[in-house]
Structure formats: structure tokens, C-alpha cells
Amino acid sequence: MLLSNPFRTDPRVLQEARAIQGAGIDVHVLAWNRDGLGPRRESHNGIEVTRTGPACPFRAPKQVFSKLPVFWASALRASRRLDFDIVHSHDLDTLPLGIAISRLRGKPLLYDAHEIYSKMVSNEVGPLQPLVWAFEKCMMRRADGVVTVGGTLATMIENVRDGRVGIVTTSPDPSVVEGASPSEIRDRYGLGRGFLVSYLGSLEPGRFIDEAMSTFDPKGDATFVVAGDGSLRGRVEEEARNNPAVKYIGLVDTDEALKITFASDIVMAMMDPKDPINIIGTPGKVINALALGKPVISTRGVGISKTIEDARCGYVVGYDSGEFRRTVTAAATSPDELRSMGERGRECYDRDFSWNRSREELVAAYRALVGPT
């Protein structure tokens, strides 16, 4: 049984559910119906889904803290009607629920850590961050097995649990772009035929969005395409109206994000190295770029930068507008170097991030807890 918050808005949950199902394991997802839009019960391509309330808006931490226990109680009642052999909790907000269900039913618990939660909320909780980390460590130690998204996170959790942690990266399927034409993709979004830099992700502070937009000359040949949502969306829309070198294309689904990445010359994954969560994260946009053989430009001091440097699949620069501008200018005149970076990036993806490897790691984690059958 997968515990999710919520189902189908997190591609990792759906991708893992499909992988588990493909290994011959029946999957039932018990999800928090936070937006109140999904049906209470449905079968999603053979994956059984039960959703339970209460509704709770996103980006509303105070309401999350007040309504999360209500979800736990509701989901605990719903779990009594289900038959299962293993509990699989995604994220810290479902982990206490998973522990309760696991202990009450006598079933093993697998924890799927997408991040270190206490670091992610450190700015919001301030001096309470050590208490959140202490709680998080206590909860993680109670899981029978743990998987996470990257090597840095795995090392941190291994130090807490004193045991091996599996790495299951939510990797894309590069076959999505087979037969696609980069020029046709660009034409569909009005991106022109010049040098194209893409940013597809969260529009929040600390992602170098304002700084990047200011470096693109309205009269230049380079274009900066942005997709996503967040608190800076209005600022991006305004810049796109006033600067023809900046294109905002709204929200796109996973397949379209891959196609736009495929049509790009370079992918921007700049993150503020002062934010602790950026030190340990593995951005999906970087994995997408590696899978499609596209070079990346990222920030010195964040966790993913070592992978980029070691694989020589992109540029690692300071979190600085001037250095970013100079790097983009140099990259635009170095097509052979970009092509070589992209080829090395694809080799890195095949070696370290491919979904085939991750799927095997996930199934192995299940078998370790419930046996080969």
C-alpha cells in the first residue's frame, strides 16, 4: 500500500506505482485528497486509489499543520478495509501514518524520502528547525527500509539510521521525444531558431529567475523560455510582455517538459547555494537534460554541481548575473563543446540515473522486506 500526498500531482508516486505493478505486485494508493477534486475511489490503469480528506490548500503551512492529523485519522480508518503486505510512505507527512498502520497491522514499512524535510522548511520554522530534525530522525529510524532520490540524501539518512539506503531517482523516459523535431517544438511555442536557454520548474525565489531574465537582451539572438508556477509567476509574465527575449509558456506536463528540453540548447538549473535544501537536492530538470543529451548550467556549491563537474556535462558557475551572462554568451558560440557535454551527460544518465536502475533498486527494497514472492 502506497501512502501519498497527494496522488497524481507527484510524478514520482505514479512512476513508482507503475514500476511496482510491473513487477507483479498489486498496488493500492491511499492518498490525501487535498484539492478535493479527485473521486474517493478509482482504478487508475489497474492501480487502485482511495482518497480521503480533508481538503487543504497548497502553500498554506498553518492549515497543513492543523489538517494533517485529520488526514491521518481518516486514512487510518480507510486502511482497515484494505488488505496489504507492505506499507510504502512517501514524504515525512505520511510517515507517522505509515508507522501507525505498520505497527497496528504487523506489516513492514518502507519510507520514501524525497528530501530532508527539516532543511526544506528551515526558513519557515526558524529556531525550531533542530526540533523538526530531531522528530524527522526519530521517525526515519522506525522505518524497516528507506529509499531516497540521490546520493547526498542517502548518505545523510544512512548516518541517521546506520544502514544502507536505496537510491530511486524519478528518471524520465527519453523515448517520449523519439521522432520529435526541435524546430517544430520551437515553432509551436514561438521560441525562434536562435540560441535557446530553458528553465522549467518552480517559480520561487532562490532559483535565479529574476537574475536570468535580466541578462537576456531584447535585441539579441538568445531566448530564455520559462515554464512553471509559483510566487514569481506574475513577475515572469510581466517580463515576457516587455522583453521579446523572454518567453513564458505557462504550466506544461511531464512529456511537454521533455520535448521543450529536447528543443533547448542548454538547461538552466541555477539555485541559491545558501539554501540548505539545494545542497542535497537532485533537480528533475537536470536529470531530464542528462537523459536527452543536453548540457546544464548550474551553481557552484549546490549538491548537483559535483555530478555536473565530474561528468563534464555542463557549466558550474557562481550565483552571479555577470558570470551567468558570460557563460551563456560563450556557450552560444561553442556548439561542438555543447554537443560533447550533451553526449557525456547521456552517458552519466545511463550509468547513474536511468529508470531501469532505479526500478531494480525499488523492487529490491520491496523484496528485502516481504521476500521474493
How does this structure look, described?
Helix 10 links the parallel strand 10 (223-227) and strand 11. The chain folds into 2 domains: 2-171 and 355-370, Rossmann fold, CATH 3.40.50; 174-352, Glycogen Phosphorylase B (Rossmann fold, 3-Layer(aba) Sandwich). It is globular, with a radius of gyration of 21 Å. It has helices spanning 11-22, 61-79, 95-105, 117-120, 122-125, 129-141, 151-161, 182-189, 209-213, 233-242, 254-263, 276-280, 284-291, 303-311, 321-332, 335-353, 355-370; strands spanning 2-4, 28-32, 41-44, 47-52, 87-90, 109-113, 145-148, 166-167, 196-200, 223-227, 246-248, 266-269, 296-299, 314-317. Helix 2 (61-79) runs parallel beside helix 3, helix 8 packs across helix 11 and helix 13 crosses helix 16 (335-353). The chain has an 8-stranded mixed β-sheet with strand order 3-4-2-1-5-6-7-8, with helices on both faces. Strands 11-10-9-12-13-14 form a 6-stranded parallel β-sheet, sandwiched between helices. With 373 residues, it is α/β, with parallel strands linked by helices. It is built from 17 helices and 14 strands.
Please describe the topology of this protein:
Blueprint: E1 2-4, H1 11-22, E2 28-32, E3 41-44, E4 47-52, H2 61-79, E5 87-90, H3 95-105, E6 109-113, H4 117-120, H5 122-125, H6 129-141, E7 145-148, H7 151-161, E8 166-167, H8 182-189, E9 196-200, H9 209-213, E10 223-227, H10 233-242, E11 246-248, H11 254-263, E12 266-269, H12 276-280, H13 284-291, E13 296-299, H14 303-311, E14 314-317, H15 321-332, H16 335-353, H17 355-370
Parallel strand pairs: 1-2, 1-5, 2-4, 5-6, 6-7, 7-8, 9-10, 9-12, 10-11, 12-13, 13-14
Antiparallel strand pairs: 3-4
Helix pairs in contact: 2-3, 8-11, 13-16
